[in-house]
Amino acid sequence: MSLQLYNTLTRTKSEFVPGDPGRVTMYVCGPTVHNFAHIGNARPAVVFDVLARLLRRRYRLVYARNITDVDDKINAAAKAAGLPIGDITAKFSQIYREDMAALGVATPDVEPRATDHVGEMIAMIGKLIASGHAYAAEGHVLFRVGAFAGYGQLSRRGQRELLAGARVEVAPYKESPGDFVLWKPSTPDLPGWDSPWGRGRPGWHIECSAMTERHLGTTIDIHGGGNDLIFPHHENELAQSTCAHGGAPFARWWLHNGFLNVDSTKMSKSLGNVLLVRELLGKAPGEAIRLALLSAHYRQPLDWSEEVLAESRRKLDRLYGTLRDIGGWQGDWSSVDPDAGFVAALEDDLNTPRALAALFDLSRDANRAADPAERRRLAAILRASAEMLGLLGGDIEAWFKDTKGGSLGNDEVERLIEARRAARERRDFAEADRIRQALTDGGILIEDGAGGTRWRRQG
Ligand code: AMP
Ligand code: ZN
Questions:
Q1: pLDDT tens-digit profile of 351-404?
Q2: Domain 4-261 = CATH 3.30.1340.30
Q3: What is the CATH topology of the domain spanning 307-396?
Q4: CA of 46 relative to ligand 1 center, distance in Å
Q5: How many distinct helices (H) and strands (E) make up the chain?
Q6: Which of 131, 89, 130 lies closest to 111 in space, CA to CA?
């Protein structure tokens, strides 16, 4: 089986063939750390985490996801909070790391910060000026779009659309309105670095080109991000890197995730419907949020709603329930191969809906199997497969006792179960039934067995 990936550059799905199978390189545009991450920001982090897991099965991967810590949005956030810029970026980088970890996103191999790479950016801008692809004007340096015949190849826009899409400022120092900023002057109150063009700061696009070159090389295998980045950000990265490297291709595969909407509406501050990862983590387990993010194919839009999240929780109840009921599969599950159909779905351009369906088939087959050894074998395959999606790795009992979003705390549940046991012992069945109803109303399912009463939360 081969790994098939859809490439935005060619608009086709094709077999992924890395430049060097001994060192596969992937760069994903990371967060601009000026605020809490919203659930849309988590989508690329989770999607490319799954791709990284898949690639690591076959290759040695170097995965870089940057942190943009110099940006006008950050300057504005620092000013509004009356705090130094470094405080804002340190705080939100840390929050981003914690939130993504709670969603089961592994830390990338490299997490470069833009402000640690200004030297590389200045060097790349110098090269672009020397080769005629950029020019300095009034403290700015601009990329000369007309000097790169390949401009527009990624977003497939014509000249007119390029201009409309870029919402470019018509500035007197620009040769052409489509030219974009590589370097701009800073006032004393803004972050700035000394450069041949005076004290200033980099434009956003050059940051990613410089960090990619520094950590992954001239031509990389995969470049990813949300599809809002195709233009202008990725188009501009492609132009800068290609021209700075004498025409060498920048990225072989470009992958873009679709957008996440909330209740069929685009998230926006003005509508007040921006869902922060932090808030959601207070209401549901990170694993349920992760599954919800993987429930649609990554290139499709994802319509987020409370129902999608509740459904994901119920799905995990089913899968964890299978693992719990069967038991005894833990022995050496880590040497077990994932299910072939499941892997084939993921290798077909990360078809996570099909891969999830394969997990439910496995779960059903495991439950139906009569032979205990066969049940354990299937449960182990279920666990090994889910691992590739970053699911079912938690403690089983802990999953069923996760109190987030539930109205009864663990201690309260235990207390009620004990009270019900005592009521039954004294044959007060009315009271026992009343307690059982209270537990059901609180979303708690109980099962009486030989070893006593077990309980779990309903999705
Ligand atoms: P930002 O911090 O705004 O640069 O965004 C970080 C990443 O999140 C980028 O890859 C964006 O494309 C992606 N992104 C932002 N909003 C959404 C959304 N609503 N749905 C999916 N991806 C998004
Ligand atoms: Zn980028």
A1: 999 999 999 999 999 999 999 999 999 999 999 999 999 999 999 999 988 867
A2: no
A3: Four Helix Bundle (Hemerythrin (Met), subunit A) (1.20.120)
A4: 12
A5: 16, 14
A6: 89
